[in-house]
Amino acid sequence: MKEGFRQSMAWLHTWTGLVFGWLLFAIFLTGTLAYFKDEISHWMQPEIPSRPINAEASLTLAQSYLQQHAAGASRWLIDLPDARDPGLTVRWQQAPNAPGQRGKFESRTIDAQTGSEVQARESLGGEFFYRFHFQLQMPYPWGRWLATMAAMVMFVGLITGIITHKKIFKDFFTFRPRKGQRSWLDGHNAVGVLVLPFHLMITYSSLVIFMAMVMPASILASYNGDVRTFYDEVFPASKTPERANRAAPLSPMAPLLAKASEQWAGGSTARLTVNNPGDANASVVLSRRGDRVVHDFGRAVTFNGVTGERLGSTPEQPVAMAVGGTFYGLHMGHFAGSTLRWLYFICGLASTAMIGTGLVIWLGKRQLKHAKSGVMPFELRLVEVLNIASMAGLVLAVAVFFLANRLLPTDLLGRADQEVNAFFIAWALSVVHALLRKGRKAWVEQLALAAVLFIAVPLINLTTPWNLGVTLAQGDWTLAGFDLTCLGAGLFLGWAAWKMQRAGGAVSVKKTSREKPRPIALEQEVS
Amino acid sequence: MLLALLLCYAAFSALCLSMPRHHDELLGNKPSARRARVLKLAGWLLLGLSLWAAVAAHGWSFGLVDWFAVLMLSALALVLLLLPYRPRLALALAGLSLLASPVAAWAQV
Questions:
Q1: Nearest CB to B73: which of A172, A177, A343?
Q2: Which of A287, A288, A338, A364 has the fewest CB neighbours in a 10 Å radius?
Q3: Residues of chain B neighbouring A187 (CB-CB closer than 8 A)
Q4: Would you say residue B7 has pLDDT above 70?
């Protein structure tokens, strides 16, 4: 190899970035949306009313609902509402018909204030983006493996990017707009460098989250291949007593909330698991809400369900797990309040933009050589189509997903799946469209369509009882914020389409005047 | 978080001005070596101060996260939105942030 270290790193940056760029763009965009998972779900299931938070009252309602409807179940799960997710969800599992089988789960959402059942439209809501972000709509474990591979490539891309970028500090404040390729590179460098702590944190932590899946060797070796034992040791299940087969009434669970909060120095309960309700050996496990930066895997307190006596709590986690928990907590951002959550969102968009600009630069540099002849070789055309569909097409599909939620009839069979289908159909059509239209035209049209669709979201929502007028008047900032954000996204995309259109005109004008030795200078700087 | 944000923004503006190229673009002349040194020092001091402000407001674990968040946000806003399009406004905002920071500090305590 004659080239220097930096050249070979630039080569690696260029090609790994290209091959995984499209997938990474989708992973980062959906992951960014997943920071507002609960808010998106709330908007997509607006029938679930948001009530003033009162954990004790909600729990009492949930308990009486379950006692009426699921008295004979072997297990109850109660998810308490919080400021972001207004749903009080109860689930129960019937005792299995035969030993060794898993009992059937049933789930209901109830009104946190009246205790009556809520019939919300079927929808995956924000869960769709969250799942897609790491499972990529593929069967288990393939999606996770592919996403983790992409994360590794992202990490390589970041490191090689840092090495390739010669003037990190000198160019720290540099962004020169309206200069064609130069501006794209400036923008790529600026979002790359300025948001580098986030890029590194989010990429590295994603590898930590799946480390046991990707590198199980140390576990397999130490436990002679018996992975179960490892997990039993790492996550000691709180001892749940066997069924006594003697009936005894479950005592009210609401007072347990305060007791658990004492244990956690003020932390609050997110979920209660009741084992063997109605039995003399009933036990109640309270799991803590993720309200700290360091995620605590399975931190819980267990009480006797009849006497209310504390049976035990999981021990303080060891340092190594706390380190892992820190990465997990930072990645998920469960602890973030609304301001910090928006900052997470902006950082996520910056990462997405970094990947997007990188893809545009790859193509732009190579297109220059063919600008005169006007004929693009097949491979460049392929990259162009994939660029358009993976970026503009994906954004457009997100808008379609939201619109489908409002436009599909609420009682449609398999409604949640139909929403997801609408998303993928729109995405697939964007590929077809990008194939049929010339590059810049396809860009402009898809961006403009995405803009129209995003602006249509709050407009169509005007016909529902949860329209902007009502939500603003009520000060419901989750629903109003969603509509306003869609509006903002639409305006931004419209601006982007307009810029793209104008830049196209400018390029053809410049081509006629033909001068500028800029491309050569650029070539030297990039790689 | 507000105080940390104001201090971060002012810090980056000072660091930006400490570089001759940007000083020239923004103010029309190259800074003297001494002026550049003073600006650089002020920038780093303000960055340190903003870290302190974030940690004092929210404890180490939340404070560090907050600090990184405002660090990235203020740099993004300065470099991508303000400097290339509204350089005068960028500087005016830096001055305003400095002026407002004692008020924010007072509100935070």
A1: A343
A2: A338
A3: 80
A4: yes
**B66 to A350: CB separation less than 8 angstroms, yes or no:** no
CB contact under 8 A, B69 and A330: no
Chain B contact present for A293, CB below 8 A:
yes
Å between A270 CA and nearest CA of chain B: 20
pLDDT tier at A34, thresholds 50, 70, 90? very high
SS3 category, A302 = strand
H-assigned helices in A333-465 = 338-370, 378-388, 394-407, 415-436, 439-461
Q: How far apart are CA A73 and CA A66, in angstroms?
A: 9
Please state, in angstroms and rounded to a whole number, the distance separating the CA atoms of residues A162 and A505: 34
Is A190 touching B (CB cutoff 8 A)? yes
Among the partner-chain residues B1, B16, B71, the one whose CB lies closest to the CB of A339 is: B1
Identity of residue A469:
G
Q: Touching check for A347 and chain B: CB below 8 Å?
A: yes
When scoring B5, B39, B71, B79 by the number of chain A Cβ atoms within 10 A, the one with the most, hence best to mutate, is B79
Nearest C-alpha neighbor of A348 from the set A24, A44, A15: A24
Smallest Cβ distance to B72: which of A195, A292, A330? A195
Residue B75 has its nearest CB partner, among A177, A194, A339, at A194
* B107 lies in some domain: no
Interface of B with A in 3-42 (CB under 8 A): 12, 15-16, 19, 22
| Residue A318 burial by Cβ neighbours in a 10 Å radius (0-12, 13-18, 19+) | exposed
Alpha-carbon distance A229 to A240, whole Å? 18
ipTM of the complex: 0.95
- The first and second tokens of residue B45, run together, are 């001091």
A416: number of CA atoms within 13 Å, CB side? Answer: 11
Q: Exposed, middle or buried: residue A103 (CB in 10 Å: 0-12, 13-18, 19+)?
A: middle
Chain B residue at shortest CA distance from A196: B72
Let me know if residue B106 belongs to a domain. no
C-alpha neighbours within 13 Å on the C-beta side of residue A367: 17
Our CA dihedral for B101, B102, B108, B109, rounded to 10 degrees, sits at: 160
The count of structural domains within chain B is: 1
pLDDT per position as a tens digit, A380-395: 999 999 999 999 999 9
Cβ contacts of B68 on chain A, cutoff 8 Å: 197-198
Tell me, yes or no, whether B105 lies in a domain: no
Range of the structural domain that residue B49 is part of: 2-100
What's the pLDDT score for residue A18?
Answer: 95
How high does pLDDT run on average in chain B? Answer: 94
β-strand partners of A442: none
Asked whether residue B109 is assigned to any structural domain, the reply reads no
d(CA A518, CA B10): 34
pLDDT digits (tens, 9 = 90+) for B71-105: 999 999 999 999 999 999 999 999 999 999 999 99
